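Protein modeling request. Please complete all fields; requests missing the sequence field cannot be processed.
Requester role: graduate student
Desired output: 3D structure, token encoding
Chains: 1
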Amino acid sequence: MLQENWTTIKEFILVGFPDLDPKYYGLVSTTFFFVYVTTVVGNCVLVILFVKEHSLQKPMYGIMFSLALSDIGFSTVALPKIIAKYWFNDEMIPFHACFMQMKLIHYFGTVSSFVLMIMALDRYLAICNPLRYSLLMTNRTILSLNGIAWLSSFIVTTVIVIHASQLPFCGPNRIIQCYCDQTSIIKLACASSSSQVVVAFILAMTVLLGPLAFIIYSYTHIIVCVMRVTSAGGRWKTFSTCSAQLCIIAIYYFPRCGVYFSNMLGVYLTPNLRLSLLIFCSVFPPFINPFIYCFRNKEINHVLNQWAEKLQMGIKSFTATSA
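Delivered output (323 residues):
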């Protein structure tokens, strides 16, 4: 529970990039607006496809469905406030709204981490144990794993927020960030936040390093299995698919881990560098995920082409009727 008796701050100021020249505010806000619209539209298309198209209701697409929902959630929580700050100079956020945004930011980020681990498990079984894949990875299994990922993420982030809310806030209220996150907020506390820092670090490393270790393990075995394939074409096809996924995984995990470790070890990062790393690893994966995981997929492209043909036929029929 927030310490109302000690806390005098009613709102926070989101500073954003502290050294950004105001003449670039329009460019920054336009860029984030484009990223937001593309992210939401791309992932919403995927959600609609997975819900309405029976042929896509398979385990792998169930994982993509969960990742798309998480990406929509994270982008909708984080990006509109960034856009408002640089487009309309709206840099104020109410105290309790800031804590709610912090909760949701970490929640959707944790969900994405767990879903990427589930995706690595799916690829590991599909490539390294193909004969047992259909037995182990059923729609019910994926539903259970996704449910565990979303529920456990809620529990972990609730602990982080409750722990941070024990601190009093009575002085500085300028957050050097584009949205409210735990690390930036607890730095503004009027009391020692060492225990909050340690707890947050342990939980963050659990939800980051745990899935990352499993992902590295899975893809190492996948590479070994692929190298046993006698066909060069088969090896190249698998590597081309895995390399794109590994790039997104690296972008998602490594900058986050670097920032957390630097905070814990006292390594100084300039505010602009820290903020750039966090924004990039937070915003870019949801933006590019529909193209990496889905729109390169033959089954999804086939369904989209069918929908496009039906739409064209409907337009022609409507035009002919109107004439």
